[in-house]
Amino acid sequence: MSAAESGAARQAVELDAWPHIFQPGREGAPVLLTLHGTGGDERDIAQIAPHLIEGAGILSPRGRVSEHGMNRWFRRVREGVFDVDDVIARAHELAAFIALAREHYGIQDARLIAVGFSNGANIALATALLHPEAIDRVIAFSGMYPFGDRDPVGDASGVRLLLANGAADPMAPAASVAHLAEVAAEHGAEVERHIRAGGHGIDASDLAAAVTFIGAGSAR
């Protein structure tokens, strides 16, 4: 995003008008940016934080798109087919939200790790790949490639992604996840994968992989 685009996006986002919760963590702990799936909200996804890092701060916004009354992060044409222009626009907005929240809550220097499930994983991935200055660490539970048949990604060196998926997930097909890993790596991102039996969701092995991912990052 250019400086002009960044400024415009930040002007379009008002922190007070965007439903979210913030809970400060212990001193020196990372802040988890928790991003819910379709139909969820900022409070239910925030409950994952203690399973990943004890004492972590929590920044948990609500998706601003409504689909038949269900909260989402971006529009889709139908199941599994995303409105890619809207994905990109909403990623701009989320990057702006993060910048404003960091300033408002005084967490400019905190390590921020995005943790998203399903639709929340997809917006986390899109934002990290388009705006690594906003998010450079993502734990994506049951996510997939968010850009359809396009590749709008620039330099993603320095970005680290954990892709945790069920091998038989019809909502996040294995081919899409493999394409995501390939494209992200081509643009310089470091990609780790955790593949388990089963479908859409988060299980104990996913959480364990996430804890290991976070611990490895803190050692760098």
From TrEMBL:
<dbReference type="InterPro" id="IPR029058">
    <property type="entry name" value="AB_hydrolase_fold"/>
</dbReference>
<protein>
    <submittedName>
        <fullName>Phospholipase/carboxylesterase</fullName>
    </submittedName>
</protein>
<dbReference type="Pfam" id="PF02230">
    <property type="entry name" value="Abhydrolase_2"/>
</dbReference>
<keyword id="KW-0378">Hydrolase</keyword>
<dbReference type="InterPro" id="IPR003140">
    <property type="entry name" value="PLipase/COase/thioEstase"/>
</dbReference>
<comment type="similarity">
    <text>Belongs to the AB hydrolase superfamily. AB hydrolase 2 family.</text>
</comment>
<dbReference type="GO" id="GO:0016787">
    <property type="term" value="F:hydrolase activity"/>
</dbReference>
<feature type="domain" description="Phospholipase/carboxylesterase/thioesterase">
    <location>
        <begin position="20"/>
        <end position="214"/>
    </location>
</feature>
<dbReference type="InterPro" id="IPR050565">
    <property type="entry name" value="LYPA1-2/EST-like"/>
</dbReference>
